[in-house]
Hints:
By secondary structure, the chain is α+β, with helices and mostly antiparallel strands. It has one domain. It has eleven helices and six strands. It is globular, with a radius of gyration of 28 Å.
Amino acid sequence: MLSVITGLVPLESEIIDTIQRESEISFPGLGIFGLDPPAFFTVFGHRIYFYGVLIALGFLLGILYCTRNSKRFGIKADDFYDMVILLIPLSILCARLYFVLFRLDEFLGRPLLTWLAVWEGGIAIYGGIIGGILAIFLVCRHKKIPFLAMLDLAVFGVLIGQIIGRWGNFMNREAFGAETEIFCRMGLTDPSGHTIFVHPTFLYESLWNLGLLIGLIHWMKKGRRKYDGQMALLYLFWYGLGRAWIEGLRTDSLYIGHTDIRASQALSILLVLAAGAMLLILRKKEHPPEKLYANRAPAEEEENAPAEAEEKTDGRQEDEPAQTAEPESENTAQAEGPAGTDT
């Protein structure tokens, strides 16, 4: 249904194996041939897949960027770290449950452990985003930090994670699209010598997210961020726009029930409509600079500073009598002689 709306014709999933780890990769239109990166490496007899390594690397670099730039949003680095402690496991859990939900027929009747077995493959980025938003909400509510300010900051970490994590799909030879003759087509040659040329949709999404990240950083440095939540809305709008198009090209989409509606494509379109409407509505409103949490947070710290200074002063005043009493004790001890040394 949505493929008709977007003008994209999906390839039947039976035609192509959606994971081709043994295939050699080429980009003939770009003059690149013979790429054969390993999908995994072995540590003490256990396979470690580059897919997971790259996702972890993306998480790490995203966290480092956010903590280095947290002051721009009025957020303390320690508060962001506290949020990440909950965000990582909750995002992974929700990413897996999202995947399972849209393939429920495959999991019904199987042991519960298989529902959570992310190491067997099968997670969805939108589920991870939902879990991340939930983690941010819970931590901000507990710490009394504005939810939208933290969300704006986290968007940059999410984008960095997505940009790098998508290359895990490249290592796995997965998340590609329908057959095509486009100039940037990716060739997959299996061990039997059979080659197919497909849309490298993981590459499209990585580059789309890179452009979005650069745009948001530029927007922020130019001082165009006017209200808390603006970065999050821009992310949802532009990411949703790109994902709605890219998802229509893929051969491994999750579908809603037994329909031909792609779950992530439908969600992307809803996000574009909702975020776009909010951006238009908020654009017409005035946004005084003092309402931005990044501008309020320093003022709140300054208000707390006199109270802290007073506490320190009171502490010194309490200590002063003890300090002035020491010479008297010494004089007394000198006058009394050796008996004073017993104290």
